[in-house]
Amino acid sequence: MKRLTLLCWQSAIYWIWQERNKRLHNNQFRAPDAIIRLITCQITDRISSYRLKSLIASSRYMQFWLSTET
């Protein structure tokens, strides 16, 4: 699950930084719920892309991810 934790961390940092840059440079704002949806979609997509390398690991990651979603 270390890989999933790292993936969540990277995704959160990426989208928070994107939001920061939009606010500073373009004066555009997103709702916090929209950012959370972007993070969730990115993590789900990345886990799905692991299917090409390892179906078993991908299934485990997806099961764990979906069990933690609210």
Automatic annotation (TrEMBL):
Domain of life where this protein originates: Eukaryota
UniProt name for this protein: Reverse transcriptase zinc-binding domain-containing protein
Originating organism: Brassica oleracea var. oleracea
